[in-house]
Amino acid sequence: VKRRPQFKKFYHSMSKMRTNSPALRRGKTKWIKNSDENRVLTFIRKHEKEEILVAINMSSLPFFGFLETAGGYSEITPGRTLEKETRGSAVPAISLEAWEYRIFRKSNI
Q1: What is d(CA 94, CA 91) in angstroms, rounded to the nearest whole number?
Q2: Which residues of 52-74 are buried (b: 16+ CB within 10 A; e: fewer)?
Q3: Nearest-CA neighbor of 96 among 51, 10, 35, 44?
Q4: Is-contact 63 95, C-beta < 8 A?
Q5: Which of 17, 27, 46, 33 is nearest to 92 (CA)?
Q6: 27-48 pLDDT, tens per residue?
Q7: Given CA atoms 62, 75, 19, 12 in this order, what sign does their dihedral have?
Q8: How many CB atoms lie under 10 A from the CB of residue 22?
Q9: pTM for the model
C-alpha cells in the first residue's frame, strides 16, 4: 500500500460495489464474446433483477471493439468521470485504455 496508495482506494470501492450488488455476490457468470478475446475479458454476472457487465483489458495496448450483447446498460465504474456522450452507454461498442476495466449495470431487466 505504501508503494501504490491508489490500491487502497481501488479495493475499498470494489468491496463496496460487491457488498451492494447481489449479482456480484451471488450471480451466475456468463462469458461474453468480444472482438479481441486474446486481450480483453468480458462477462456478465446476473442474479434475479440485477445484471452487471464487466470488461477488462488485460494488455498494454488500447482496445476498441464490440461485445456480443444486446445493450441497455449504464456505466457504474467507480471513480470514472463520465463525459456527456458516455452517460447511459448502451454498449456493445467499447473502448478501454491499457489495463483499464469498465463496469456496467443493466437498466431494464
Answers
A1: 6
A2: bbbbbbeeeeebebebebeebbe
A3: 35
A4: yes
A5: 33
A6: 999 999 999 999 999 999 999 9
A7: positive
A8: 15
A9: 0.83
